Amino acid sequence: MTTITAPPRTRRKPARQALAPYAFLVPFLIPFVLFTLVPVGYAFWQSLHKTERTGGTFGQTHSVFAGFEQYAAVVREPFFSDSVLRVGLFAVVQIPVMLLLALVLALLLDSTVARLKRFFRLVYFVPYGIPGVVAALMWAFLYDPRLSPVVDLMKSAGTQVDLLGSHLILFSIGNVVTWTYTGYNMLILYSALQALPADIEEAARVDGATGWTIATRIKIPLIRPALVLTGVFSIIGTFQLFTEPQVFRSISTSVTSTYTPNLAAYSLASGDNYSEAAALSVLLAVVTFLLSFAFLRFTSRRQG
Predict the structure, then answer these.
(1) What is the pTM of this model?
(2) How far is 264 from 46, CA to CA, in rounded Å?
(3) How many whole angstroms separate alpha carbon 92 and alpha carbon 33?
(4) Is a pLDDT exceeding 70 seen at residue 57?
């Protein structure tokens, strides 16, 4: 007669062991909640209220619930569509150019024939280490026709270009952003390239693949997640565009107080219109989230 033995009981993990993984998330969750979720939640709450004055011009002010009235007011403002379309154009042109430059630099540094890799890696990354205000002021000096040696050189060559004019100011700002963040994105892509197994490239070279084939057919597809990551970061950063237009506003009349959505929210808050500024900030956060999510879905389908 055969005896049937019951399977061994699985030992339940102690509560301390079960909670251990969540403990590692605490250093991230606490700042995320305090400096992201709480400010966004407060901005959303403030956007649902408006300030009213009772008792005439010198009466007291108090906050009343207004629902989505502030959102409707922001959308009806002429600057809303103009600033969003302007930033959208900026993203369509600047992000591909910046990521292409970052990818080329990363591939050059990762190539077997590259020399002085540490030196050039530092040189490419240095612009990102310069504060944004300082970088914008430096480029503003190079754009100013009264001070710029670059403009003087172009004039001597017979070329009249107003880099601070209404037709070129957006591209001038894009040049500053590209110069600042190309090295940052290059470092992310270069790190992804360094993580690739060396035997993949060696096997490709044994099969007779050229450097161009290895870069385009092997390396770039393998670092696609890093490219997607830099793309999402770039989309988020573009809709937060503030420092460069704010600096250029002091030297060019082409940059208004509502040139970008972020600058418009700052101007509204500076005019004590906090509710409308909060509504614009929430709308900007929603648009950024939707575009980032759409970009992730599009790239995941292409990858699949």
Answers:
(1) 0.83
(2) 17
(3) 32
(4) no
pLDDT beyond 80 at 112 = no
pLDDT at 8: 58
User: Across-strand partners of 49?
Assistant: 65
The separation between CA 184 and the C-alpha centre of its own chain, rounded to angstroms, equals: 11
Give yes or no for a contact between 203 and 213, defined as CB atoms under 8 angstroms apart: no
Are 132 and 243 in contact, with CB atoms under 8 Å apart?
yes
Model confidence at 5: pLDDT above 70: no
By CB atoms closer than 10 A (0-12, 13-18, 19+), residue 67 is exposed
Which tokens belong to 83?
């600033």
Burial class of residue 56, CB neighbours in 10 A (0-12, 13-18, 19+): exposed
The two tokens of residue 211 are 């450097």
Count of other CB atoms within 10 angstroms of residue 266: 18
Say how far apart CA 297 and CA 188 lie, in whole Å: 21
- Check pLDDT > 80 for residue 55: no
Closest of 240, 266, 244 to residue 254, by C-alpha: 244
Question: Token pair of 240, please?
Answer: 């937060």
Q: What is the pLDDT of residues 177-235, one digit of tens each?
A: 999 999 999 999 999 999 988 888 888 888 888 888 888 888 999 999 999 999 999 99
Could you tell me the sign of the dihedral formed by the alpha carbons of 203, 205, 209, 212, in that order?
positive
What is the spatial distance between Cα 199 and Cα 204, in angstroms, rounded to a whole number? 8
Q: What is the C-alpha separation between 248 and 139, in angstroms, rounded? A: 9
- Tell me the C-alpha distance between 202 and 218, whole Å: 12
Mapped onto helix, strand or coil, the DSSP state of residue 28 is helix
